[in-house]
Amino acid sequence: MEKKLENIEHPGVVEGVSGRNVLVRIKSRTACGDCKSRSYCGLQDVKDKIIEIETSKAANYKIGQKITVTLKQSLGYKAILLGYIVPLVILLLALIVMLALTGDEPLSALVAVLLMVPYYVMVYLKRDKLRRTFNFHIKE
Question: Is residue 127 situated within a structural domain?
């Protein structure tokens, strides 16, 4: 029986330490090569990404130190839902409804795309809550 993966893990390098925060650079090529969750993770197409991790042990980390960062796999699925699935559903529903109401393809496409603006504004306004939800941890 295969062991179920509970966390998504990426190796990284400490880029900076400030107060309770550690800035970590993730090199996704090396991180995603053997990762079982690479098909679900938005980091797979990014060469370098810097993430900020809040930890009470920030003073223990030094610039250049190699560490492993983790994120619960269930949060990866939630990120996919909020970042890809919900916008796609809004876009398709708006397109279908507008086509049914007006029959005008360019107008329907424009309205569907414009409906993405309120969604992403809402996501932007909720960024602090999302940041608390989608928090990385340093693997000890």
Answer: yes
Structure tokens at 63: 């610039």
Instruction: Note down the domain range covering 104.
Output: 7-138
Domain-located, residue 33: yes
Read off the pLDDT of residues 106-122 as tens digits, 9 standing for 90 and up.
999 999 999 999 999 99
Count of structural domains within the chain: 1
Contact between 91 and 25 under an 8 Å Cβ cutoff? The reply is: no
For 33, the enclosing helix (H) or strand (E) is none
- Strands (E) across 7-136 are located at 7-18, 21-27, 48-54, 66-72
DSSP 8-state class, residue 47? S
pLDDT one-digit tens code per residue, 80-93 = 899 999 999 999 99
